[in-house]
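Q: Got a minute? One more chain.
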Amino acid sequence: MANMLEVKHINKTYKGQVSYQALKQISFSIEEGEFTAVMGPSGSGKTTLLNIISTIDRPDSGDILINGENPHRLKRTKLAHFRRKQLGFVFQDFNLLDTLTIGENIMLPLTLEKEAPSVIEEKLHGIAAKLGIENLLNKRTFEVSGGQRQRAAIARAVIHKPSLILADEPTGNLDSKATKDVMETLQSLNRDDHVTALMVTHDPVSASYCRRVIFIKDGELFNEIYRGENRQVFYEQILDVLSMLGGNANDLSSVRL
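A: Always. Here it is, folded:
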């Protein structure tokens, strides 16, 4: 398998009255078709890392390669095009536009690329059927539940078949049932359509749906673990690493999946 994402020796320091190094020599790669979570305590550098991979922020040194290309070396218009084509985003607060229907929100990436309306319709109904939200397409965002909104956001993120999905705390605003729905949606897209996804999360239940979890602490790679066949076992391994990290995992360890 080819590497979809390569993170090479990334450093990032935020200057201010007190400078602080958010990332120190972080390196890892993600293969095409992998579903990976990044975990770590608050302030460990997870969000900085995601922002650098998504080109929202720039590293001080080091390289990010997505499909072999370094987006940080592109000029602004090419970078905007690269982001639209290669990346799909899923956010904690859904980032759907209230003025549009659910269907119009999902179609947005294709509308921006000026795809033919017939092609857009076909792709919209295909992805909506796959995610079980066909009956929501004419509804407004405030007429559907949080879990349904996040599934719509996932549909929008994958409709243009990007190389890489970047998810930032996608279950952060959801209850446990909606979390399960959303994570099963991401898991099935990964398994059936080989969607490559990188997710930052603080939730061990969500992370247990991934194939691999990378842990960072104080801006450095701390550990990584891979899932076997049993998700419950993986969940308990995640809790073990989080407790070593000094996270707040202890109060979660009695949860059964």
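A: The chain has one domain: 3-252.
Q: Perfect, thanks.
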